[in-house]
Amino acid sequence: MAMLRLLLLGGTGRLGSAVLREAGTWASLAVRAPTRDEADLARLTADGARALVDPELIDVVLNCAAAAHVDRCETQRDEAHAVNAVAPGLLAEACARVGLPFLHISTDYVFGGGAGPYAEDAAPCPVQHYGVTKAEGERRVLAAGGRGTIARVSWLFGPGATPFADWVLGQVDRAEAAVFAEQQSRPTWIPGLASWLLDVCSVLEHGSFAPRILHPAGGPHASRAEWARAILDARGHRDVPVVSQSSAPPAPRPSDSRLDSTKTDDWVLATFADPFGTSPLPHIPDWRDHV
Q1: Is 211 within 8 Å of 149 (Cβ atoms)?
Q2: Is 118 a catalytic residue?
Q3: Beta strands 222-223 and 242-244, pairing class
Q4: Residue 26 CB contacts under 8 Å (≥ 6 apart), including other chains
Q5: pTM > 0.85
Q6: Average pLDDT per block of 10 residues along the chain, 291 residues long
Q7: How far apart are the C-alpha atoms of 267 and 291, rounded to whole Å?
Q8: DSSP-derived secondary structure letter, 33
Q9: Is the backbone of residue 174 left (phi > 0), alpha (psi -120 to 50) or beta?
Q10: Among residues 102, 111, 118, 130, which one is catalytic?
């Protein structure tokens, strides 16, 4: 089996780290994951992007890098715009120039100004600067043409990345857990998503068709209250009630950013189904099994 040569950007982040761990289980995958000193996306230029995207050394590019601290993006707007909007566009253009597939990670926070669930072709409607910059990054990736694909992900959690669970469990001693109870999206277990993304990279490298926008998801939509309830119940805190948090964060959060994955699921089934109608592409596990 030919070696798949992957350029991974954002390899130290929550999702990128999981991709690197999963990549270590692949016998036919070589990953190059440059450090920030080697590839600072906040200062990326067109020439820098072209230097990174060398078709003699790599077969596909996976961009997990992002300025993802939602509140910090409100005050560090220039950096958020550079990393989330400018850099993805430059990378997509560099990949299109040499014919390489480019898989870019975006977010459900490109939505929120309307009512979900949002299909893959729904128009972005962000409600904070983080979402604005990510939506602009999507626009630039699509405008670059070539073989660019966007995967929107939501409410990531997993080993080493449990900020919401930590928040909920840290309130157990107060006899109740306060969350933004009505906020709705789709929790996603990071290890399963990382495996899925690597399989998609392999599909893209082999030249197979993929939709321009994907909504990978495992399990149903949920509110923050439902997610918090599942976390507490899984750890034996069934007597701790979940209540609505009154204080608002600096940056607005979307009340509804649920992703509809119908078109993505249809593509997976149509592309990977065997003659018996089952899909060999690993599904993303149901989030409720991993809280």
Answers
A1: yes
A2: no
A3: unpaired
A4: 4, 198
A5: yes
A6: 91 95 94 93 97 96 97 97 98 97 98 95 98 98 96 93 90 93 95 95 89 94 97 96 90 96 89 54 86 91
A7: 28
A8: -
A9: alpha
A10: 130
